[in-house]
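To fix ideas, we reproduce below one chain and its tokenised fold.
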Amino acid sequence: MSWIFHFACGLLMAFGLGVSGMTDPSKVKGFLDVTGAWNPALAFVMAGALAVNILMHQIAARRKKPLLDQDFFKPSRVSIDWRLIAGSAAFGVGWGLGGYCPGPGLVSLAALTGGQFGPLVFVAGMIAGMWAFKVKKI
């Protein structure tokens, strides 16, 4: 039954990404272009997401267990190592070059129209990267 809740959360996030325009790579690239025609729209989206996250984290911290599971799942590793830094750098470079990160890339792929193949190339590369990580155990 919890899959319905997961699906609804994903649908809500996809809707929010679409409404905020974050599926448009030019908005993302405009945010990253701090020396040119800077577009602060993404900063407002991030600030809104951060506010919701902080609020929900505070609410969850007061609970003994989650509503739809037996335990909270916390990261087993908390150190900063070369894998984290390299992965973050690759994510940032890919985001800056392509204008997509995983969420908006998947939403854009679902709404693929007008012969735009950017989302298809991005999602294919993302899947290939995940597969390579799993196979090579980087």
Observations:
- The radius of gyration is 17 Å.
- The helical segments are 2-20, 25-32, 41-61, 82-98, 102-110, 118-136.
- The chain has a mean pLDDT of 85.
- The chain has six helices and no strands.
